[in-house]
Amino acid sequence: MTDRIAPRKVRCPACGGESVYSGANPYRPFCSKRCKNLDFGAWASEGYRVESQPTPDDDEESAVPPPAAPRR
Q: Rg of the Cα trace of the chain?
């Protein structure tokens, strides 16, 4: 007796459409490559942000300029 488990279906975080959440879907939890890329683009352009409180170390790091690249 072989019991097959139906793939889990979830809501795509980008478009709200149905998405198959299984190893067969390379874009999971998204429904398509387009939705996955839209989400990635939003993160890359800082459309999404993770809230945090500034720390004293943040001020020190921004005051120190980065080291110069070595000349050749």
A: 21
Instruction: For residues 31-54, give the mean pLDDT.
Output: 91
Mean pLDDT of 37-51: 90
Looking at per-residue confidence, does 71 or 37 come out higher?
A: 37
Peptide bond just before 26 cis, omega within 30 deg: no
With respect to residue 62, please indicate whether it lies within any of the assigned structural domains.
no
Contacts of 65 (CB under 8 A, 6+ apart): none
Overall domain count for the chain: 1
Residue 7 neighbours by CB distance under 10 Å: 14
- Report the distance separating Cα 11 and Cα 20, nearest Å: 9
